[in-house]
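Dear U.,

For the methods section draft, I wanted the exact inputs and outputs in one place so we can describe them consistently. I've listed the two proteins in the order they'll appear in the manuscript figures. Please don't edit the token lines directly; just add comments below if something needs changing.

First protein:
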Amino acid sequence: MQVGGSNKHFERLNQLLKVGPGNLSIEGWSEEFVKTTNPIAYDASAIQVLEGLEAVRRRPGMYVGGTDIKALHHLIYEVVDNSIDEALAGVCDRIEIIIHPDSSVTVQDNGRGIPVDMHAHMNKPALEVVMTVLHAGGKFGGGSYKVSGGLHGVGVSAVNALSEWCEVEVKRDGKIHKQRYERGYPQTPVQVVGKAPDGVTGTQTTFKYDPEIFKGELEFRFDTLVQRFREMAFVTRGVTIFFYDERGDREMTFYYEGGIKSFVRYLNRNRGVLHPVVHVEKEVDNVVIDAAIQYTDAYAESVYSFANTINTIDGGTHLTGLRSAVTRTINDYARRSGLLKDSDPNFSGDDTREGLTAIVSVKHPEPQFESQTKVKLMNPEVQTITQQVVVEAFSTFLEENPAAGKSIVQKCLTSARARDAARKARDLVIRKSALESLTLPGKLADCSSRDAERTELYIVEGDSAGGSAKQGRDRHFQAILPLRGKILNTERARLDKILANNEVKALISALGTGVGESFDLSGLRYGRIIIMTDADVDGSHIRTLLLTFFFRYMQSLIEAGHLYIAQPPLYRIAHRNQVRYAYTDADKGRILAELGVDEGKAALQRYKGLGEMNPEQLWDTTMDPANRTLLQVSIEDAAEADRTFDMLMGAAVPPRRKFIQTHARDVRNLDV
């Protein structure tokens, strides 16, 4: 007899029941069960009080979102956000961020400097209070900051708590004040260490993240930080942000006088635009709405939102207000101008969002965010205010620019017809599936398990690789879907054309999520979707085509962490009775050195395709969970990913040619 379930008490019961007949009495089991289920008394002694910043170290996920690479970058964002708040207050116009060779980070601004005088209630210098006490800061009362991104008094103290060490220098009142902390605890009192030049003020924070918290081989990524600082500079007009990475001697400086209007132009620089950027900035009830809109010839929507300069990646009421305003304005204009007949239905939100590039940035004195990581704005009044401001400005633009208005409405009409065709195509696919008892694509070699949390779907290139993968896989949890040739470039096609492509249809059917309006992540049949293509130019192209499709039409699948890229080996190295696999050229050199053999004397095979490996080799190197390496696909910055996909896969050729010429010298393993 076995008792099912994963509960540890039932596991213990299983062990006891395995003893055998006659060896266990009911009384004995009951006594053992009581001992196992009640190991600790629950009384006052069980209640823990975490002092100071210990709560942050125990539960970093509550304060910076976890302990992964994303949370590591969040440490820098929290410190920089404080400097941005000084810029919003009009007392700072330059921010410098430096990553040092030991991965410590310095953030310096020319703001007012954190106060250093004694705090009457805490009986400590204000600087020490700000750095070591949760929910302490100058942004609660509204007197020092009209608007700010830091609201909870948690950010910089959380960074301090999660740092191996942290040093703060404050230039204020003609003096330079300094204090050092280790894992959140002050090591020295606030000291005067020098004189500040006349009129010079500001704060300099240097910290080194704590490897006890952020474990593993985590490193700050230059490109990820560049994207974030560029966005900050766009939405904080007139502020210079200088970023220098001493590890690779790379630097960038950002300054945009045009603000979010420049941001929209930047996003659309590789697209054909239908009209000039429509921009409005207006204050209503102490809330500043800053919005910029431009339609392009693209098929995807590129809309991003910010609240007090913070990128609200999950949107919120300001984004809802912007979208509602755009749809309402276009419908009203189309009716008034006779471009929509009385018998025609109104455009839906999906119709009016095709090809739309827009930014909405709000500055609110009392913003309400969904969490400390500030990914979604919740203030209900912001939706009404945003809609009111955008409707007024966009309506005026359309009335004054009838040619642009006609182009936009025509774009929406085409989108509506295409969406109707896509709906009919999707319904046809669904009806066909129903008639065939929901059969999966014939080319799919499915797995036997139905547990979506542990199953995997390998998307492989061609029948040859598909055959090896089908033979080498573990049939219990690994499914194989071979694709013939290169799928459609979804960057240059609407959904109706995409749904007519057999390879894309097979992929959508295998995943089980649907696509477009009917996309539902809960229907996903596999926990991991793994793209496995050859290590050559064609393989890279197919991988990029697939990534384009997932980014444009199943972005939430990426955001939920379901998409991966397999890493097959580049070389098979055999010497005497040893066989090793190398995944990079550096790997190859290291293995040859370990074997003590020159490259010419070893049996070296360069894999150009997965089909060159037999099923056992493919399993051992690329599919066996115990040995393989998978690269998880994530979206660090949606705006930059949007621009990159548009540049690489869009219709405009000159930007792509420039990219290739710029990076030609960096290419490795190019087959010629």
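Second protein (the one for the lower panel):
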Amino acid sequence: MRTSRLVLLLSCLASGFSTTIAESYLWPLDAPPALTSTYAEYRFGRFHAGLDVKTWGKEGYPCVAVADGYVWRVRTSPWGYGKAIYLKLEDGRTAVYAHLAAFEERVEKVVSAEQDRRGGYSVNLFLPPGQIPVKRGDVVAFSGSTGSGYPHLHFEIRDRQQRPMNPLVNGFGVKDTIEPTLLELAFIPLDAEARVDGRNVPIHRVLRWEQGKGFFGQPVSLWGRVGVAVKVYDRADASALTNKLAPYRLALSVGNDRLFMSTYQLFSYDRQVYEVDLDRNFGLTRKGKKGFHNLFLLPGNTLPLYDGLPIGSGVIDAGLELPGAGTTMAIGTHPLTVMAEDALGNRAVAHVEIQVRRPVYLRDVAIEPESGSISGRFSRAIEAQSLVVEGSTDGKRWEWLKTARVRGDGFSVDASGSFDFLRVRFADGPSAILSTASGESEAGASPSVETSLGQGRTHVSITSTSPMVAPPLVERDDGVLDVIAVDAYRYEAVVATDPDRPYVSVRVANVDGGSLDTTLVVESSSVRPTRSRIQSDDGVVSATFDAGSVYWPFYARIERTKLPDGAEPPIGHAYRLEPDSVPFRSLVPVHFKVPEGEDRLKLGLYEWTTKGWAFVWNDVDSTRNTVGAGVRHFSVYALLRDDVPPEVSIRKPADGSRTARNPEIEVALKDNLSGIPMEELIDFELNGKTVVFEYDPEGDVARGLLRQDLSTGAHELVVRVRDTNGNESVATSRFIVE
């Protein structure tokens, strides 16, 4: 309670200080204050460092100095912040304006001179204090969309150490009378022994809102080490109908105990921006479930967002006393609440009842043909519990048959009825499904089994194209594994990954005669925070971990994998690197050996995504004859060949045209594989001399920047474009200036 009061006091002091600062700062844009996004939102594996100020789809709004100071830094780039200006303010802070269309005249002259001196568009200038002073309210630039896909102003306020601060509590608040919206909670097993509703996968609870009471979700059953994550957004009045914003503060409590709190006020851009993958749930993001904030602290998290809480804070140790900073919760029922607050103090709370209980699994489940009953054993002797029996004709839609009170070591329940499938389950999740068919049909395809490596655990998935006569039997040398029916054709089991015990046996039979009796070898290698290296069994693929490149130790593996039908075939084979749910602290080099007869300069490392192959990079090691790239997570990777040159055409001035003395120069350029990710891959020459150009990679266009009028007569423009693999295209336009 003392910590909570201290946090509240500091928050009040910060709010008072912000009010004082607000009196001296102007709003950075000469337009009504409205936001499209806010501080600390998730941006492509990093934190958003400021506010995105709404410009209603237009460019050219004046950007004004928020206080007295001087132009300290100016940058131009086709990527990232595009055109950006940094003002050093008299109070020692820095105001940053990005994605600009143009600078004010004094700055524009300095930038143009440096571009001409370098012969290139991208510059990064640091100016002395007296060169370009500014007064509060002076126009310093004009809003645009450079480096970005849509018009808006990106604005930051940084402290003396150049750490981005939350502008909404540092003098740049907007009107906000709307409380945050809590959408969903995710309960995440953190090791192989943990269970949520009896399963070892994240389980979600959609939240519903009740007037005057808050948000509510259905009860959830927990056992072992579990983390909670929340999906939430906020709105502000001026953009409430169009834009969802990030919250300012989040907290997790169980009963009267606060387990976790995060406040998005400050972080280090250089050191901590990528730790967003520890603050947001990386595993859910990788599965396409974006936007979940972790309400627990993972190893390696150094962000100053949690008021000094130790690593492990927020973790729920349900029913067990485990080492670390997690909170042990006794068997029984507990009220869990999640609070979300915005920078103006509007607050919303979600409530979910958690039931701490050790799950019970069903074993040796079978149908007795003569009596029509279904029987089985329990994984342990139990006190009285409710067992639900359901029937289905298609294995998808289930009809309740009965609820029986069971106890002891096993059960036998009447389940007669005309159903093709029967399901028996406990209310908190674990279930078994089997077919009522006789098994006399023709033999069909055998069931299949796949394994996937998670964080410290291996998931075993058994799938069949026809119903199973009984739940699969999955064993390791240390005992029988508990299996759960995901649906009528798929079961799952989980086991702690152990390189010393890699063998898992699976036995299953289908009603049509197909069967499976196999032993899997789940091989893995240890990755430590110190230097490590792993490779595929065939030696083709390797990943090298330098000291400090990972946040925590884990087991990993590399193996060949099949691609979906229709996928462009790679050079050689595609490989799955697991686990894919672990973020890396820094880039980890992954290299493929180049197949015999291939030109390594035309190859690149590609990642398989939901949209197909995505180029990563092409680091060529001629000594080892490998091609690879640095990656921040594991995935499915392969080598692809790119020997197709980019597409290039000069739109203006067109070949053979007649123009004025200061013509527009516009070139369309595009590459579909390795891409054109650097200005250095593009050359503009006018009459044999270099022309500075502005490249817009999102628009697939580059525009020449003529500083002076051309002479009358004939001129020749030559544009050369190369992709990352060195394939080159050349376009020429010969035109007459009248």
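Candidate sentences for the figure legend, describing the second protein: Residues 43 and 276 are 9 Å apart (CA to CA). The first strand starts at residue 35 and ends at 37.

Thanks,
Y.
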